[in-house]
Amino acid sequence: MSESINRNKLAQFGNLELLAKQVVEGFITGLHKSPFHGFSVEFAEHRIYNKGDSTRHIDWKLYARTEKLFTKRYEEETNLRCQIVIDCSTSMLYPVDKPENKLEFSVYAAASIIELLRKQRDAVGITLFTDKLDIHTPAKSSQRHHRYLYSELEKQLTNYSKGEHKVASTIQSIHDIAELCHKRSLIIIFSDLLDDPTKMDEFFQALQHLKHNKHEVILFHTVDHSSEVEFEFENRPYQFVDMETGEKVKLQPSQLKEKYTEAIKTYFAELSMKCADYSIDFMPADIGKGYNDVLLKYLLKRQKLH
Q1: Which terminus of the chain has a lower count of CB atoms within 10 Å, N or C?
Q2: What is the CATH number of the domain that holds 181?
Q3: Domain span holding position 288
Q4: Do 243 and 258 belong to one domain?
Q5: Is there a single domain that holds both residue 93 and residue 68?
Q6: What separation in angstroms does the CA of 260 have from each of 46, 154, 180?
Q7: CA distance 207 to 204
Q8: 76: pLDDT strictly greater than 70
Q9: Which tens digit of pLDDT belongs to each residue from 197-216?
């Protein structure tokens, strides 16, 4: 297991830019359009001059043609505010017997996104949650802030301890994030979504809270597809342990495989469909394919859409 983030391992995407699909609010002149109008960058439209308005932006050429006073309105170009959210519950430390677990996958993917946004001079923050928000930083673009983000991410690269049980309070955490993040941010969530399936409606109410606050949401569903979806285990008895509660169960995988795979695929398919209904980007992230491949495919897809 890595003890620190290897910058050479960070994904390199060349000139690909993580452009927000919806209008975002920013604070530095850059790449992303703002809903606010200023007088500094790109002409947007004319509006009738009202008494008391500044005469600085009156279009005198238009006045000469129409004998009416109009002022120019401009559309600012702003940088993106991005908040990277990572589920740090104990289940994210699965699998324990492979080179990279779900949490390490998410940490390196997050580091890659931070590196990409740094090159674009975009603002980025991180939120790490378990049963509460363990860390929440505002989105900033300074080098000092980036170093702090890397240091906090590095602390998550730890080995699984059998006595450690951290549950995820995903629903409440998302509600908290919706209120804490600056409106019109890009929220990128990494989670295995192994929550109580009976609370799916509550989960999407939390996501809708993000959408209500004008955030754009990308949900990377982080799983070890071979074991957690396809249930591919040797045909011998196993003792399965719930990494968040410590609960144990002994079984023969072949006896359960058909029902398990049908149920889990149905659940994940429903998550995907409901995300589409809520205009949330749902991205399956199989850790077996590596974060570099998953991110690159998503960014290529995203760039084609815009």
Answers
A1: C
A2: 3.40.50
A3: 80-305
A4: yes
A5: no
A6: 61, 34, 38
A7: 5
A8: no
A9: 889 999 999 999 999 998 99
When computed from its CA atoms, the radius of gyration of the chain, rounded to whole angstroms, is 23
Tell me, yes or no, whether 58 and 196 share the same domain. no
| pTM attached to this predicted model | 0.78
Q: From edge to edge, which strands make up the β-sheet containing 70-78?
A: 29-38, 70-78, 42-48
Is residue 171 within 8 Å of residue 199, measured between CB atoms?
Answer: yes
Residue 135 has which token pair? 């860390």
151 phi and psi angles, rounded to 5 deg: -65, -40
Burial class (CB in 10 A: 0-12, 13-18, 19+), 258: exposed
Pairing assessment for the beta strands 186-191 and 81-87 based on DSSP bridges: parallel
CA 305 to chain centre: 18
Q: Summarize pLDDT for 238-265 with one digit per residue, the tens.
A: 888 888 888 888 989 889 999 999 999 9
3-state SS of 8-19 is HHCCCCCCCCCC
Distance CA 163, CA 50 (A): 69
Q: Quick count: other Cβ atoms within 10 Å of Cβ 75? A: 18
Enumerate the β-bridge partners of residue 124: 82, 140
Contact 124, 82 (CB under 8 A): yes
